[in-house]
Amino acid sequence: MAATLFASGVNSHRTLSTREFEDLAADNAVRYPVFIRRMFEHDGAQSGLLTSYAEVQHALESLALAQDDIAVVEFEDTRCSDGWFRKYGAFYVAGEVIPRHLFVSRCWLNKGADADQRFSAEELEYVNGNAHSRAIASVFQTCGLEYGRIDYATKDDKLVVFEINTNPTVIDIGDMNNRARLEATNAFVRRFAMSLDAL
């Protein structure tokens, strides 16, 4: 899927297998910095940002991951003009885009909301709207998918797709316990339930 996103021009960064990384590194064709993640998991980066071939090799030796489960990803800096990283999540259900969440963080590795209270109104506006629906639908169509959750940012008015999870968690108990984000969570649940009812 990552190769499709790059080949189609959706993403300008590459997700490389270790063999692809070795081949490109030999030709000085890797765009640093990069980070390491597991190819078939959704647990985010397994390393910090790495700025050279030697750093990547050292990180790979330290992590001791199976070769077929390693991806080397070219980093895309999606920091907004206010200095915060915004990671959006949206579901795609049989042609319908349903915004799920907005995580705002000072850290590029954005796995959750650092500043719930400050950005809860912005998240609610995102979940109640559908600002990127056309672009999201196009990505799913390009990948030949009818269902999943996309995690992405925006840069220069384009999507930067981090991943598409085709078996995502829909709701987590932690979401229901987070008062700052509860209104946005409830808005998503209502829209998601209506979409399933329509099916």
Structural notes for this entry:
This protein starts with a helix and ends with a helix. α4 packs parallel to α7. The mean pLDDT is 91. A hairpin with a 2-residue loop joins β4 and β5. It is built from seven helices and seven strands. The protein has a four-stranded antiparallel beta sheet with strand order 5-4-6-7. A three-stranded antiparallel beta sheet has the order 1-3-2. With 199 residues, the protein is an alpha+beta fold.
Beta-strand portion reads 15-25%
Helix percentage: 25-40%
| Head-to-tail CA distance between termini | 26 Å
Shape type? globular
- Mean pLDDT, to the nearest integer, reads 91
Q: From N to C, what is the helix and strand string?
A: HEHEHEEEHHEEHH
Number of discrete helical segments: 7
Question: How can the largest sheet be summarized?
Answer: 4 strands, antiparallel
Order of adjacent strands in the largest pleated sheet: 5-4-6-7
Low-confidence region ranges: none
Rounded Rg: 18 Å
Main structural class: alpha+beta
Report the strand count. 7
